[in-house]
Amino acid sequence: MKYAIVFTILTAGLSLAQPHRHAHRHAHVDKRSPTADVVNVPGPTVVVFELNGKTISESDVQQGLKNGTLKWAGDGAFSVAPSSTVASSTSAPSPIISSAKPTSTSIYVAPTSSTSVAASTSAAASSVAPSSANAAPSAASYSGSSLPDANNVEADFPDGELDCSTFPSDHGAVSVEWMGLGGWTGIQQPGSSGDGGFDDIMTVTSQTCSNGNCCTEGSFCSYACPAGYQKSQWPTKQGATGQSVGGIQCVNGKLRLTNPSLSKKLCMTGTEKVSVQIVNKMSQNAAVCRTDYPGTEGETVPLDAQPGTTSNLTCPDGAHYYNWKGAPTSAQYYVNPKGVSVKDACQWGTAARPWGNFAPLNLGVGYSAGSAWLSIFQNAPTTDAKLDFSIEIVGNHGGYENLSGRCKYENGQYCSGEHYESCSKTTGCTISVSSGSATFIFSS
């Protein structure tokens, strides 16, 4: 006999007694126990997640728990039948974080040397069984590049002219249809706003959209940009307790820029001081997914590195991009096993497959203090799965002269040193480059 379990998910901060009938929709990740309605049924265990009376997917639950917009209802712990597995949400690691250890996972501070550094995390390790990196992509995977071309990426956005139901694919944004949000990578709805910032921030799920229209009045709607570009829009006012908020906003039924002083375009390039690329020398694609930050912080911004191609990789300039409480931020990319489509890879996954937030490996990329800092590191503690191909950072003309050192992942190890003599299965590596180019070489 097994159990059908319904996990009721409350929006974060909801008072159980609700004496004033004011439901708060956001707080820090405050996991509370789900209330479980247990019914004896034959057959396999079924896990259902419910939000405000509507069923939502496990991936939406994981995203909400990670970014703090959801919490478990109840008193803190939950149990499931032995045959059922529910993966606990973990924060993605950042290769370099400030000594203040903020809760944000994308804070970037340049290291004082180019020696190898261990990947850090703001979350406690989750107990997750190792996954094989050889799992095959789903039958629904796209063949070839599944990303639409960007249109008019260099044109100014028609601020206040497009209806909120219109995704701005003709104005530089790349539609991410598999998220089920009308092309948006993530949508946030602040419940309140004060001098200290937004509070009660709810993450919109595909199941809660009305007739497919997800970017509704007051929402901040985030989007992907083509390779070599990054989102330029986020409001000056951010979360009251450190939550990040990103995207353009639906105001009076029209899409409005939220950061026009930075750019009147939806997408912008990173630093011009250093050029960063990915070269895929394999016979299969490699899905590389950037964290949507500022925003929901899901790994939903896709780059589809096709076989035999070179792709630009955006390197944010810390002095001219999003700052979290005054600290510059870098970009974090999740690298998935070869052959997995961006549709499967660039969204929240499960421990059953090393995709999405369970991808084996991360790249850290950012420009600060006169140099670009590039890292390769394990996606710990989320997974100890190993990537099934090699990655090496090379400099101008395939050499190393303009790099501060060497950094490579191969056969499950992260190696540095002049002859790659210093290797570790757990500790990543970082190099810096002040000019010229740096390339991540993907090879079998």
TrEMBL record:
Name of the protein in question: Secreted beta-glucosidase sun1
Keywords: Carbohydrate metabolism, Cell wall, Cell wall biogenesis/degradation, Glycosidase, Hydrolase, Polysaccharide degradation, Secreted, Signal
Gene Ontology biological-process annotations: fungal-type cell wall organization; polysaccharide catabolic process
Annotated region described as Disordered, given as residue ranges: 138-162
Family, as annotated: Belongs to the SUN family.
Alphabetical list of InterPro entries matching this protein: Beta-Glucosidase_SUN (IPR051526), SUN (IPR005556)
Subcellular location: Secreted, Cell wall
GO cellular component: cell surface; fungal-type cell wall
Naturally occurring in which organism (per UniProt): Cryomyces minteri
A molecular function GO annotation: hydrolase activity, acting on glycosyl bonds
Claim: Signal is one of the keywords in the record: yes
Keyword Signal: yes
One Pfam short name: SUN
PANTHER family: BETA-GLUCOSIDASE-LIKE PROTEIN NCA3, MITOCHONDRIAL-RELATED (PTHR31316), SECRETED BETA-GLUCOSIDASE SIM1-RELATED (PTHR31316:SF0)
Signal peptide coordinates: 1-17
